[in-house]
Design goal:
The chain is mostly helical and about 190 residues long. It has 2 domains: about 1-70; about 85-190, no CATH class. The protein contains 7 helices and no strands. It has helices at about 1-20, 25-35, 40-105, 115-135, 140-145, 165-185, 185-190. The longest helix has about 70 residues, at about 40-105. It is rod-shaped.
């Protein structure tokens, strides 16, 4: 019942606006000038009123149709935005896990030379996995950023074997780069 009342209200508002237009004035003038009868005027006015009723009904429907289309667009936009945010969160979590694994590798750098080859192999495996993930799921810029180890200064790492030092410094930079990728998703994650 409420829907019928809302439709009637919209219809009457549009119909009243059309009925108060100058058409009826011109019909009256035409009858006066041409000498037509009042019966003809009543018929012409009835035809005009019915035509305006049909136009008003179409206008009321069209308003609702446009609102419906706008609501559908809004829903699609919200759904797309929700999916984008979910994907962004998923990527940030995965990159964060890679950063944590890299930090663990950095902390596990061996103090003795016998363990260094296996540790370096694990670091290379980690870096390859991260690079492949970034290439497959993010933008090429993210992969470039991850591998950017320029502007490193020589560092020493007390407690770690000296043959790990050339790997520890770039490893630390790659971990920092992963954190920067997470902090700048619009630039690196390609979800715009």
């Amino acid at each position: 019942m409420r829907k019928v009342l809302l439709f009637s209200k919209a219809l009457l508002r549009r119909w009243w606006a059309s009925m108060s237009c100058a058409v009826f004035t011109f019909l009256g003038l035409y009858v006066a000038v041409s000498g037509r009868t009042n019966k003809w005027l009543l018929g012409a006015s009835s035809v005009a009123a019915i035509a305006f009723f049909i136009i008003a009904a179409y206008g009321a429907w069209l308003d609702e149709h446009r609102r419906n289309i706008e609501l559908q667009r809004d829903i699609e936009t919200l759904t797309d935005e929700k999916a984008r945010k979910a994907r962004l969160l998923e990527l940030k979590i995965k990159i964060s896990q890679y950063a944590t694994a890299g930090a663990d590798l950095r902390n596990q750098a061996p103090p003795s030379p016998n363990e260094v080859p296996l540790w370096k192999q694990n670091v290379n495996h980690w870096a390859t996995d991260v690079r492949n993930f970034l290439n497959a799921t993010c933008s090429p810029l993210a992969s470039q950023k991850f591998l950017d180890t320029n502007e490193l200064t020589d560092c020493t790492f007390p407690g770690k074997h000296s043959s790990t030092w050339p790997v520890l410094n770039p490893l630390g930079k790659m971990i920092t780069n992963l954190r920067e990728i997470i902090e700048n998703p619009d630039t690196y994650l390609g979800l715009n």
